[in-house]
Amino acid sequence: MTDYAMVTPQPGGPENFERREIAPDAPGPGQLRLRQTAIGLNFIDIYHRRGTYPWPVDRDLVVGSEAAGVVEAVGPGVEGLSVGDRVAYTIPMGAYASVRVVPADRVVAIPDAISDAVAATVMLKGMTAHYLLHSSHAVRPGDQALVHAAAGGVGLLLGQWLRAKGVTAIGTAGGAAKCALARDHGYAHVIDYDREDFVARVADITGGHGVDVVYDGVAGTTWRGSLQSLAVRGSYVCFGQAAGPVTGFQLSDLAPKSAKATRPSLFHFIADPEELRVRASEMFAALARGDITSTPRQEFALADVAKAHAALENRQTSGATVLIP
């Protein structure tokens, strides 16, 4: 079998992806070589491919930030991991490949009850949901939360986890099918933003009080309405920008509600290996309890990643998508 990576030689559309043969490297000190079995698809991959985020290298780029696989070789100094172990990771970029070398302290063991496909789709999305709910704004039973893109990969996890924590989850989604999917994943109320004004609906649902927190991965078209939807002293957590960046924001926009606003990034919350392990352990425990589930709803061959990106950009996917090398 010939190993390969899907490479983007320059920023642009999904048609820029090229399949390139690669030769597996030997792992160095503190490293592992993984035979990848499943790779998660995320909107951040599109940001990287487009060049929305500056490319970190002056060369061809391999995007992709979460995957699962089997340890194929172990470098010097690695303890606690052996050839044949099933592991998963989230690392900024490099995942769109059949085999790769990664730092051993960035992977976590996959519990026996969890499949590679599920693990590959929760390392970035699941731990994003974890840090949002536990660190960016720690929710409490009885809170009310608004989540945009409720039928997306992170959105479906947030809805379930919020419900398990005793929080009333209000979601926005586009179209009847996605609204129904969100309802099936923990949302007490779902607003179809193709047909309804979410600000007015949130005011109606909350009796004019507003929500304690907004988790917003859409940003460009939702941030102003999100601030209006907050309760006094509420929190606006913008963790993505699927509809483009926030523009025109001024600190004084927070004054009408004495609101707090933050723009966090997952990788700042898992930079420490111990924190990574704790968050992963708690996420896998939530999966084991059934508090959250993450069954991939779409599957593409890694070689067909251009089709997967086009589907995600055109809002033709819901929930998690997995790429198979």
TrEMBL record:
Renumbered to this chain, region (Disordered) spans 1-29
Supply the alphabetized keyword list: NADP, Oxidoreductase
One Pfam family for this entry, by name? Answer: ADH_zinc_N
**Domain Enoyl reductase (ER), first and last residues per copy:** 12-323
Q: Which domain of life is it from?
A: Bacteria
The record's section on SUPFAM superfamilies has: GroES-like, NAD(P)-binding Rossmann-fold domains
Instruction: Please identify the protein, giving its name as recorded.
Output: Quinone oxidoreductase
What's the source species for this entry? Answer: Paracoccus spongiarum
Taxon lineage = Bacteria, Pseudomonadati, Pseudomonadota, Alphaproteobacteria, Rhodobacterales
